[in-house]
Write a structure and sequence with these properties.
about 220 residues, alpha+beta, Protein Transport Mog1p, Chain A, seven-stranded antiparallel sheet, three-stranded antiparallel sheet, 12 strands
Amino acid sequence: MEIYNKKSIWKWILLYLIIGAVAYGAIYYFFFYKDGEYSENFQYPIFNYQMKNNTTETADWKTYRNDKAGYEIKYPPNWAFREYPDIKTGAGFRPLSEPNDIAHEFINVDTYNRGTDYCDIPFVEYVKTAFAKEAGSGEAVLISIEKIDNMNSVESYKTIWDEPPHSSDNKRLIIGPITYFGSGKQDCKSPQAILGDNSYLDIYNKMIATFKFTPVE
């Protein structure tokens, strides 16, 4: 009976990893990226699953309430917000440990008009094209969509987008996550939360789970 020592086992493991990396690279090149562009025939899969949340984790959080747009959302006690002074329909959030400026507002919440052409379709169908419509970039591609388990039963979808290059380096941009909240009303309004730094993804996920619609004053 042949006995393998630890050194021999690790050699096999390393070999499998190299083969896997080469195979993945080939698949990525031929199906995702070729000649500096993503394959036009490839369709990104859309995932729908519920993200678990825990109300006790946000029980002592503060609440940002926007009476003009009609919603509220919780944020950590060691964070601060700056309400947009002109439109007053949203705010930028930052850790208190970061400088008090716009560049360090890593989570932003605001309300946008869906447009009359998209008021009568199911909310999830609007979400699948939302960023491309709002950014005026018809070439933006939806990479993923997740249904959020919102504490207040708000229909919520977290999305990530792929946008074409805007410079000569031919690098594509990954935008998001952007979470869209549906009010279930024919008001054509779509509040959304955008994460600007993935270092705060855990905070972001907990915040979007607390989003709640309130009466407009």
